[in-house]
Here is the input.
Amino acid sequence: MIQFTMLTFCIAYLVSGALIVLGQFGYSVHNWVHSLQQFGLNIPFAIYILSPAIASYIVLKKNNKIADFKEWLKTVFYVKNNISLYLFVVAGLALYFLIHVAVSGRTEMVLPFYT
Here is the structure.
């Protein structure tokens, strides 16, 4: 547990620090991606957001709890309840984001929260 927490925060702090420094030189995160360049610019921010998932894979792999990526997915997304409950949650999230897109209209660019 300690390994996971420390690795998660190390990844998050390193990437967020790099994003803050890059922000001083014009780096920005795009809300809607319209080009390959914008997609590439969003990758460091995605790594920051996914740091818990990245850390869990590294720690489980290091401790020989999983053999490969497929086994990690089965471990992380262990389905023990009725699948309809999970589908209901996914449908709710999709509805939330669709409503957000419908009401917000087109947004050219959104700066990261730390600027």
In short: The first helix runs from residue 2 to 23. DSSP finds five helices and no strands in the chain. The CA atoms of residues 56 and 62 lie 10 Å apart.
